[in-house]
Amino acid sequence: MQKRDLLYAGKAKSVYLSDDPQRLVLHFRDDTSAFDGKKKEALERKGMVNNKFNAFIMEKLQAAGIPTHFEQLLSDTECVVKKMEMIPVECVVRNLAAGGLVRRLGVEEGIELAPPTFELFLKNDEKGDPMINESLAETFGWATPAQLSTMKSLTFQVNDVLKQLFLDGGMLLVDYKLEFGVFEGEIVLGDEFSPDGCRLWDAETREKLDKDRFRQGLGGVIEAYEEVGRRLGMTFD
């Protein structure tokens, strides 16, 4: 697989064309940002850690029957993915109250949400990724009812797999966001799954082991990411 021209550069990843018109090369950079890009920093080893972390999780999800765009690692910081038509709607599941939910509703951080909540957000950095509903997504053509139904079902399937995976490693999967696309007519999980896009707490101490360490200036961001990986059996050497 040969990397070709840059197709798109996001806040933390770059996407390149390849010599296969149906495949892209996803490059995980060391860049880190929060608050819609208002806080930025380059963290050494982050690209490598997130690339390998994402590959591990995507392979676990594929083994559970969940279709993903991930195909193979290409280097320490790059992987090969399917070239999809992305759906501009983010799916968020919350198992415990944290982050935006606490700010919006004034509920106590850390309370268990039973059943877990499911939310939709429009992927639009300029507008701050506003919360939307299924009706808005359909009306404005961001996603069809059938696509939304499949995305919701897959998002909860991911929850079933990963809640137990992280719990086995002594961690709580607090919440996470997923993005989907269409490949050969099928809804497929895209983007990445890493501590950048989810919240993970130690099950006993509730120490934060995710991007909130960067958002809140707690330090030890990459060390926490690597600790999560080690608990799951990953190696980053």
Automatic annotation (TrEMBL):
Q: Which residues form the SAICAR synthetase/ADE2 N-terminal domain?
A: 7-231
Q: One Pfam family for this entry, by name?
A: SAICAR_synt
Q: What class of enzyme is it?
A: ligase
Q: What is its EC number?
A: 6.3.2.6
Cellular component (GO) terms are: cytosol
**Classification via CDD domains:** SAICAR_synt_PurC
Keyword list (alphabetical) reads: ATP-binding, Ligase, Nucleotide-binding, Purine biosynthesis
Record's catalysed reaction(s): 5-amino-1-(5-phospho-D-ribosyl)imidazole-4-carboxylate + L-aspartate + ATP = (2S)-2-[5-amino-1-(5-phospho-beta-D-ribosyl)imidazole-4-carboxamido]succinate + ADP + phosphate + 2 H(+)
Recorded coiled-coil stretches: none
GO MF annotation terms: ATP binding; phosphoribosylaminoimidazolesuccinocarboxamide synthase activity
Q: Can you cite a GO biological process for this protein? A: 'de novo' IMP biosynthetic process
Q: In which pathway does it act?
A: Purine metabolism; IMP biosynthesis via de novo pathway; 5-amino-1-(5-phospho-D-ribosyl)imidazole-4-carboxamide from 5-amino-1-(5-phospho-D-ribosyl)imidazole-4-carboxylate: step 1/2
Q: Key word Glycosyltransferase present in the record?
A: no
| Source domain of life | Bacteria
Q: Which family does it belong to?
A: Belongs to the SAICAR synthetase family.
Q: What is this protein called?
A: Phosphoribosylaminoimidazole-succinocarboxamide synthase
